[in-house]
Description:
By secondary structure, this protein is of the alpha/beta class. It has helices spanning 6-16, 29-35, 53-62, 66-71, 80-92, 106-114, 126-140, 151-157, 159-167, 182-194, 210-217, 241-248, 257-271, 277-288, 290-293, and strands at residues 25-26, 38-43, 73-76, 96-101, 118-122, 143-144, 173-177, 199-205, 251-255, 297-302. The N and C termini lie far apart (42 Å). It has a six-stranded mixed sheet with strand order 1-2-10-7-8-9, sandwiched between helices. The chain folds into two domains: 6-49 and 151-302, Rossmann fold (3-Layer(aba) Sandwich), CATH 3.40.50; 54-144, Rossmann fold (3-Layer(aba) Sandwich). It is globular, with a radius of gyration of 18 Å. The chain has 15 helices and ten strands. Helix 5 (80-92) links the parallel strand 3 (73-76) and strand 4 (96-101).
Amino acid sequence: MKIPSKIDFINTVARVSPHVHQTPILTSRLLNEISGAQLYFKCENFQKMGAFKMRGAINAMLKLSEAQKRAGVVTHSSGNFAQAVSLAAKNLNIPAYIVMPSNAPQVKVKAVKGYGGQITTSNPTIQSREEEALKIEKETGATFLHPSNNIDVILGQGTAAFELLEKHTDLDIIATPVGGGGLLAGTAVAAHYFGNTCTVIAGEPFEADDAFQSLQAGSIQYNDTVNTVADGLRTHLGNHNFPIIQELVSQIIRVDEEEIITAMRLIWERLKIIIEPSSAVPVAAILREKHQFKGKKIGVIISGGNVDLSNLPF
């Protein structure tokens, strides 16, 4: 698996930019003091449909042939990618078939319906999600879009980091959460080509630390349990993103549930923005390992803000 080329990435930026928001970058003097670093928050919670996943979904769909667009797309997702595919498909006038597990947050199910996605409910296992998606693929001829293990999706997700590096060319580090690995891999490609000496790290919950385990083992590992508040990270790496992460990501820092909730609350209180638990994970990682980030300029990708307000962890 070779890393996508710089030209591929530049073409992706040109393709995606007209269809997404150039999201704001926020800073906080107090959060700089608490962390001992200079933090630049790339706020993808202000992206269309409320998360970075719009970028990858629109990129993958714009690359489909006319025949593929007519047949539609199918994906499985517990929430954010489901919303991204539904909205991107609506904007491009493409049918969207969405498999969602029975335990998906209701706020995300409602949003998918609002964007016109046709929902099929599966059991809450990856296997069940994949089986349902395959069935739809066979019945409709729709193109399957993997939420994180698809090169066009990965490159699309990397455009958030590209925008961050355009504004702040001297970042030492970019930090993201890691679940399926699409955002992390895309960010790593962006930093590789446009980041000068910028390294990429990720935060991951101890309760779903398959990416950390995968880097240790040198092969893709799977979670036994996914008992984490960060519902967007309850998934595993894939064969397209893992080699990129292996080669280009310098570190994955694991955090516990209390650290995630504390970081989430801190961002709500200090930046006055709504973020989902997954977005707080890299912030928790920076706060956990403050000693190694002292004085560094760190870009943090705030991955999304789709929260069930009736079910907050604090």
